[in-house]
Amino acid sequence: MWAMSAVGYRRLGAAGALATAAGGWISGKLPAHDPWGLWVDHGFSARTAAAVLAYVGLTLLVVAWWQYGKAASSVRDTLVTLAWWTAPFLLTPPLFSADVYSYIAQGAMVVEGHDVYSVGPSSLDPAGIGGDASASVGNHWRDTPAPYGPLFLLLSAAVAKATGGTIVPAVLAMRAIALVSLVLIVWGLCRLAREHGRSENRALWLGALNPLLLMHVVAGMHNDGLMIGLMLAGLVLALRGRWVAGSAFVGLAMMVKSPAAVALLFIGVLVHASATGPEIRRWAKGLLAPGLVACAVAGSATLVSGTGFGWLRTQGVAGNIHTALSVVSDLGLGLGELGRVVLGTDPEPVKSAVQRLGLAMALAVIVLLARRAMNGRLAPVQALGLALLALVALSPMVQPWYLLWGLVVVAATQQHGRIVTVLIVLSAALVYETHPTGGTPPFGFAMAGLAAAVAILVIRRNPVVAETARMPGPRTPVPSTGPVRSHGPGPSDDLDATGPTPQTTAS
Known about the structure:
By secondary structure, this protein is mostly helical. The protein contains 19 helices and no strands.
């Protein structure tokens, strides 16, 4: 395959990002009403042509990212590349998702005193500060209570109040929050990679430069980015012995989205390993202390926000919507329909039972991984990354960007191998599953499947190899019940994530 320098791939990716942003300006998720007249519908023909341009640009970006992973570069080079690839999306309308309109509408609900955990954005006055945002929310979510924590609702309320709900500045303010999330992720990736003896550059390539993250955290402004960033900050603090502050940051991450709570179990492993005294005391401290700190933070955030504790009962509302990426929901739906045809039974109870079984299996995998971390067979944060991937794989609702929950952690902690290879392939494929409007058309799945097939063929012809440079493993305290093991190779200035030898040919 043709090859360029890292600078050449940076330019190629920037061209792709510009094309995606330009196409998205017309084919993205435009608001129902924009009083500024910047993000307006230009008709079917223009939307179709712009969507084609966006997909072409996305393909250039994916190719540039893939090849950049094989080019010689430094951490500074990769950070510059990240800035180049991020810049085109700073002023665009929402791309690949309409969720930001829900965020703004829910913030307006908080400002107006609505119970966001009982009613949806449709309860807003069309002429009020959240009227335009409410009208732009996807049909599935207009009557859906907020599944997000009070911290995120406070941020959304601040945006709605500061901008008066005017669409363009409100969306750009939410993108500013997304950029802060990206900065947190970059900082966390570098620190975690350093703690685990991994290449910071490779961690940034897979965990931050990844097109899946750029499309869904920066362009799409999903609050998963903020959850991940806060969670990474908590993990870094916990690894440095400041587990109370680390647990508090995870508590804040939970007050954005609840899956961050899984991190508390693995911070507990760190606490148990470093605790002194009788074994029962070490177990109690490890199992209970991080959760108590996080609960104190969650309770305080809830009281400060004034939104109440309704978030405890709305965590499952998203699961009511079927997503084709959820294997357990697809299996449950198929078995339920089979029962309806053969036995005449209601398919919904069958689907619900399979979904609950999937969550139970995810819980079992998480506990098993925590056990392996407790025994010193896995680094605790590495085990957390795998646990989050298992949670996504067995969840009743799966969106493409959910992969980022575990991917970012794995990028900084996992030795390059089969798991990382799968994540690279999935990243290159799942960016195609969602249309710039945020919809999931059938051709999106076809394009994702084609991208995955091409990625697998490329990797087979140019095999992924492990890092060769080594340094001592992480400074994570390892319990005395297991052997002290090296958790991987050391940092390198080269990115060789998808190829055997860094390429240095001129662009």
